[in-house]
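sorry for the late reply, my laptop died twice this morning and i had to redo everyting from scratch. anyway the thing you sent over, i finally got around to it. pasting the sequence first so we're on the same page, its 191 residues, then the predicted structure underneath. double check i copied it right bc i was rushing
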Amino acid sequence: MMIIYTHGFGSHGNGSKAIALRNYCKTNNIPFIAPSLSTIPDLAIQTLEELIEAFQAFGKVSLIGSSLGGYYTMYLSHKYTLPCVLINPAIYSYKTLQRALGNSPNFYDQSTYEWTIKHLDMLKRYDVETYQGENALLMVQSGDEVLDYAEAVAKLSKSKMIIEEGGDHGFKEIERHFDTIVDFLSDHQKH
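ok and here's the structure:
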């Protein structure tokens, strides 16, 4: 099973969750990739679709996404019928990221890039209204200071859920759930 991790807005493939997951997967001999994606939604989705299609030629693929990466992961999970884990996902990213219009930070090198209405319009195209998390594990913390965790709980009513009090948008102490994450993805692969 190949795991593809999708980072959040302004983040990159070497963010703290990506590094922790990469190390866990390496230790457990699980193929893992966390690409640094374009800030342009259409290009990010294109990259992820190409990775999924390439890796599917060699075996099973599972997805993990955090924040905006969770939004992308919902779309891709639905499109390709793949199991996924959604960590504090941005359920309505095309609305919540309106507050980022203008110059937004890239957390890798502290540079900035322009985030525009066109980008929000691109995000809207990847909204899957019918998706309720049938093949998803939703992980949220109520202390998320960026997103309302209740939106994810309401939208993903058919997903398995881990809801924790407190915490933050980064999902504090996520490492204690890595075994659960991998077990869920393994159990939900199509036979």
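DSSP finds seven helices and eight strands in the chain.
thats about all i looked at so far, will dig more tmrw
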